UniProtKB/TrEMBL annotation:
Pfam families: DUF4440
Domain DUF4440: 12-120
Name used for this protein in its record: DUF4440 domain-containing protein
Organism of this sequence: Virgibacillus necropolis
InterPro entries registered for this protein in UniProt: DUF4440, NTF2-like_dom_sf, Steroid_delta5-4_isomerase
Length: 150
């Protein structure tokens, strides 16, 4: 993957995170393909940009969703029109000052190039609980804390 394509896929991920942090359901939904899927932290599955919007709008209206702090762990291209972003993310709950380790997640974004523009085909936000391995929770939280404090 050349640096320009890597940057374009990174920007797509950044736009998604920015839209979440602004609680902008339309901004998030517009980034998905017509068949794109969103798998949320609780396992909710939505398919298509319209359904993504319909799913996120009431969440943003009715819940104080915390913003993401993230770190890209890798971006790679699978073929000329498909790329993957892998990241870790954490959240500081509303009114809080510290990351809540129970909200840590692995995030995976599959991007496809559609008519010259990168769009999201799949975004999955998986809890990073590391059952029985508290040292991994602490390691991830510290890594994200370094980003949050910089």
């Amino acid at each position: 993957m050349n640096a320009e394509e890597s940057e374009e896929i990174y920007v797509l991920y950044q736009q998604l995170i920015d839209a979440w942090n602004k609680r902008d359901a339309n901004g998030m939904a517009e980034l998905f393909t017509n068949e794109g899927e969103l798998i949320g932290f609780d396992g909710s599955l939505t398919s298509g940009s319209n359904e993504v919007f319909s799913h996120l709008k009431p969440i943003f209206e009715e819940h104080p969703t915390p913003p993401f702090v993230y770190k890209i762990k890798g971006i790679r291209k699978l073929d000329s029109d498909t790329g993957i972003v892998r990241a870790i993310a954490g959240m500081v709950p509303p009114g809080g000052k510290e990351l809540d380790p129970s909200l840590n997640a692995h995030q995976t974004l599959v991007a496809v190039k559609n008519r010259g523009n990168w769009q999201i085909e799949l975004f999955q936000n998986t809890p990073a609980q590391f059952h029985g391995r508290p040292e991994l929770v602490e390691k991830m939280t510290n890594e994200l804390r370094d980003i949050a404090n910089s």
